[in-house]
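ugh ok fine here u go
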Amino acid sequence: MPSREPGHPGTPEERALRAEQVRIGLREWNGYDPGESDLVTLDAELDRRLREAGAR
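structure:
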C-alpha cells in the first residue's frame, strides 16, 4: 500500500482491501461473519449516522 498523509483514507480499492482483511480477522477471531443483507443494513445505518452528524 502506498504511503499516505496521516488521516488519508486511501483509494476505494485500498479501503475495500482493508475492509476484507478486517472481515477475515473478525471471522477467525470470534466467528463474526455478516451476510450481504447484514452489510446492507450496517451501511444504511452508517449512512444515516453520517447524515445526522453532518447536519449538526
